[in-house]
Amino acid sequence: MNIAVIGNPNVGKSLFLNTITGSRLFVSNYSGTSVEITQSKLKIGGQTLNIYDTPGIYSLNSNSEESNISRNFLFNNDIDLIIDIIDAVNLERNLVLSYELMEIGKPILILLNQIDRARSMGIKIDCRLLSRKMGAPVIAFSAATGEGFVELMQLLEKGVNNKGYNTAQFDYHAESTENIQKNMQVMVLGQDGCLGDCGKCSLSNDKCVSQEDLERAKRARSLAGMVSNQMDVRQTMYLEKVQAVIDKPVLGTIILLFLAYLSFIILLNFIEISEGPINVFLAPVNKIIEDFILTALPQGLISIVLAKAVPEGLIIPFTIIMPAMLMVSLLMAVLEDTGLLPRYSVALERIGSFFGVSGQAIIPLSLGFGCRTPAIVATRVMPTEAQRFIIITLLSIVIPCAATLGILASVISAFHASLAVIVLTMLAILLILASVLSRIMPAENEFIYELPPVRIPVGSNIWSKIRIRFSGFFTEVLPLLLIMSIGIRALLESGALEIFRGMEQFTRFLFGIPAEAFVAVLITIFQRYLAPIVLMSLPLTPREATIAITMIALSLPCLPMMVMTVRELGSKSLGKIIVLGFATSFTVGIVLNLILPH
Amino acid sequence: MLMSNLKPGEKVRVIKIKGSQLERRLYELGIIHGSDIELVSLHPFKGPLVLKVGNTTLALGHDIAELIEVEEM
Hints:
With 598 residues, chain A is α/β, with parallel strands linked by helices. Chain A has helices spanning 13-20, 65-76, 91-102, 115-120, 127-134, 149-161, 177-189, 211-227, 238-246, 249-296, 301-337, 341-347, 349-355, 362-368, 372-378, 385-397, 402-415, 419-440, 459-470, 473-493, 504-511, 515-526, 531-535, 542-553, 559-569, 571-595; strands at 2-7, 24-29, 36-44, 47-53, 81-87, 108-113, 123-125, 138-140, 228-230, 448-451.
């Protein structure tokens, strides 16, 4: 039997599902969006129920990705029961969706969630009256206290035993399913039904509010007024005071920026602490693999390539990437669950709109200074794919991660290269790239967001978010990383880059650096950690070193990042970033050569 | 008056929403003719407004607030 769980965003669907089921699996991950439908299994009365979680939606009839996906899911699958989760604290708005769900004609169970929170706010709800008016069973529920859990299980079991759930008897006239599907079809086809300013047509439309919608809103308001009772006097809870401070324009912004900085520091320290033990453990494994390949395969290019690439492909992800991914997943989950994340888009909206990105961009950008590969995954909080691309491009080409910073620092000091020039150039490129990219990309300007209540993060929510974010790391990222490692190694070992060695005049003219240095730059662009090895042996003047180092700093993303970019945006986007990376690197080299005094 | 002219703490009711482009999105979040709204805070330099509709907190861009006509309660 299939059960679909539907509700507004922030009603507590995640926590509800964690409470009633053990494990949750990804069923569909709609690429390019952060919208997903997850499936869990629940064993009741000897049968296994499939419980599908849909993305939070405010209305079934909107044209957003979430609404379209949820609607299609409901209509194209055999759903035996809809569990409509409504927020006891925001009854009026939630009931609008409930009325829409009633029209579908499938059995519905209404779960009045967060009843404990409502109670603490002095809100009392007459569940029996609500149930009578809606014509569907209503269970007062709290994932936190467990209230309603037993009732829910009993009801689910009854349905299993009866081989189905009772279709609700309505006090409300439902349209037949056929009518609904016709409505849906009009919407999917586009805005053509619009009569213009506004006769308030009866058909729902993606941009407008129809007469039906207004009817539902009216009914929802009157029903909410009928069944709920708000006591006037109530204490402002501690969390509400915290939220009031965070929502203040100046103080709140300072706090949020400080938290972003703190997240970066935590990530940095965690990477440092975990690197040691992991290295100690993996170094011998590294050697074993390398030796094994060299002895097992016949001598030659292939064996050398594999012997170096396989450990490289395996070691790097484990030593730095995996701990960083874990910590970033944790930090992102906490920021999301506490309700702070969307507040970044509010606090930094003015700055963000100057660069054409949401203020939330500061999170992946700050984390990128620790490790950029998980920061790429963190860009999922950005509202549009265009903005994700912009931030991922900035991460790939400009933002230096901790490892890169370490490498750069050692090389800069060894050659007495100009730190000021390098830093200023990086800043300039950051501003230029961000501005240019945001002008090219289509802009979205509907700034209307719900800000969920600030709250203390819930352990099981955090855990399931980490698991979901982290999943696929071993199955998808590692194999791809291994293959690309081999590819890069083959390129380096084949000596293909050596042709540039003879181009002394060319490199001197363009970049002001010797051909050897140019080859070193190319090698380092592909494998950043080789920088000390290939550069240190060269006799470079401070000017030459400054140019070479800047060209390395502003170039391509590292391999794990490339893999992650393919996974998140696709290989075409990666291609664009690589081209842009080379273009930036060479342009910077040429320009610096022109403007830096000898 | 326009929503963009409110001061923090003021409570108003929505009279009219100009332009239908954002009507649906506003509707989804509970802002329609007759909704009761309280302004929580205002970000400087024409930054977003933070509002309360019922027990829900929302953020609205300044340009959008300029399209919403409200009256004091």
